[in-house]
């Protein structure tokens, strides 16, 4: 067990400095902006739409930059520590528009509570990139 996985066990989160470096973050933002532009009104149409939010779906098939995210060697061991063996079935994006009062509590679509830790990992990594 590493120091960072011990932090996960003790505190329920861990800070992974530079898990998403500035180059990757820039590439992600650029590709996401381009996808919203390309998909326009059909962006995220596979899901229930809500006012104040934007969505994109099936991102694994929409650019190499997303493969770089889901194969991140810094993050993957921590995801596995939280959820155990796992298989990625989809990668989607939900973005609340600035100034919106839309809220979505942390949740698991599958009902499997351990998945909640994954969102924390992503949020903390993004914040500290």
Brief digest:
This protein is mainly α. It has helices at residues 3-11, 22-39, 64-70, 76-83, 116-127; strands at residues 53-56, 93-96.
Which stretches are low in confidence, meaning pLDDT under 50 for 5 or more residues running? Answer: 113-118
Strand content: 5-15%
Categorize the overall geometry: globular
Structural class: mainly alpha
Taking the sheet with the most strands, its summary is:
2 strands, antiparallel
Strand order of the largest sheet: 1-2
Q: Supply the number of helical segments.
A: 5
- The pLDDT mean sits at 79
Rg (CA only): 15 Å
Order of helices and strands: HHEHHEH
In total, the number of strands is 2
Separation of termini? 24 Å
Helical proportion, percent range = 40-55%
Written account of the structure:
It is built from 5 helices and 2 strands; from the N terminus they run H-H-E-H-H-E-H. Helix 2 crosses helix 3 (64-70). Helices cover 42% and strands 6% of the residues. The two termini are 24 Å apart. It is mainly alpha-helical and 129 residues long. It has helices at residues 3-11, 22-39, 64-70, 76-83, 116-127; strands at residues 53-56, 93-96. A two-stranded antiparallel sheet has the order 1-2.
């Amino acid at each position: 067990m590493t120091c960072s996985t011990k932090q996960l066990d003790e505190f329920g989160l861990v800070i992974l400095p530079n898990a998403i470096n500035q180059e990757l973050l820039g590439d992600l933002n650029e590709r996401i902006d381009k996808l919203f532009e390309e998909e326009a009104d059909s962006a995220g149409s596979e899901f229930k739409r809500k006012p104040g939010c934007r969505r994109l779906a099936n991102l694994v098939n929409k650019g190499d930059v997303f493969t770089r995210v889901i194969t991140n060697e810094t993050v993957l061991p921590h995801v596995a520590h939280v959820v155990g063996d796992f298989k990625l079935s989809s990668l989607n994006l939900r973005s609340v528009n600035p100034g919106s009062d839309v809220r979505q509590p942390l949740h698991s679509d599958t009902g499997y509570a351990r998945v909640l830790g994954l969102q924390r990992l992503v949020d903390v990594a993004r914040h500290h990139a």
